[in-house]
Amino acid sequence: MINFKKTLSMLASMLSLVLLAPTSSAMAQAPQAGASSSVLPTGGGAALLDTSDTVFLLLDHQAGLFQTVKDISVAELRSNTVMLAKLATLMKIPVITTASEPKGTNGPLMPEIHEFAPHAVYVGRKGEVNAWDNEDFVNTVRATGRKTLIMAGVWTSVCVMFPALDAKLAGYKVYAVMDASGDVSEMANRTTLARLVQGGVIPTTTNAVLSEVHRTWNRPEAREIGQLYAHVSPNYAAVVESFVKAQEVARQSK
Fold first, then answer.
1. Angle between helices 74-90 and 206-214 (to 10 degrees)
2. Chain centroid to CA 74: how far?
3. Which fold has domain 62-240?
4. Catalytic residue among 59, 85, 159, 213
């Protein structure tokens, strides 16, 4: 059995170095498709994300649309979206962004996405509400060679659901990150969730995406991944900080 105290101590050391800081070892270039499968000999991972087959689609995270979001705080929405951008950069997962009429009332795309995922590819649209109606967007997705799409955006009921359902019918495995997306009401969110599930799209959260990509602490990116857990769950970071302090006090009292 794993020694929990030893594991927590290791994680605490990782997080206490630079909590919430941008990753230092992240690389901008996304890898080519065709990497080995993430399924282990035990069968572990068969139902989870395979990062070698995954692309993040961040849709219409725009300043104007943020002002209409009522089912999640805008601060949490933006923070979770930033976490996805950082995770994609760290783990070299391709990112595609797009915006709906960014020169109009919907406003510009939040700049943090391309700041923390400099390898992200932006695809402009020609007025289409549904990104999947745009040929350039769909061709950019196809060009990655990947079949697992992680979608998030504003509004969930339109900018995420429309392309998610279309992509699912086109043969992709599609996830919708609900807490990196936002909508005009709780009712809109609940109705959209039901329709996504009915259409075969997998609802998920930023923490679940992080954990599925993470899979094991026995990897070179463990320190940076620890920082991302602190990002997505500040309460968890506080637990680690308390543990680190308690360990310091214990050592000083000896």
1. 20
2. 16
3. Rossmann fold (3.40.50)
4. 159
The domain segmentation of the chain, as residue ranges, is: 62-240
CB-based contacts of 37: which residues, under 8 Å, 6+ apart? 50, 52
Strands (E), 161-249: 173-177, 202-204
Tell me what pLDDT residue 42 has.
92
pLDDT digits (tens, 9 = 90+) for 170-223: 999 999 999 999 999 999 999 999 999 999 999 999 999 999 999 999 999 988
Q: What is the pTM of this model?
A: 0.83
CA distances in angstroms from 191 to 136, 139, 164, 198, listed in the order given: 29, 30, 15, 11
Beta strand 121-123 with 95-98 is parallel
Identify whether 209 is a catalytic site residue.
no
| pLDDT one-digit tens code per residue, 71-94 | 999 999 999 999 999 999 999 999
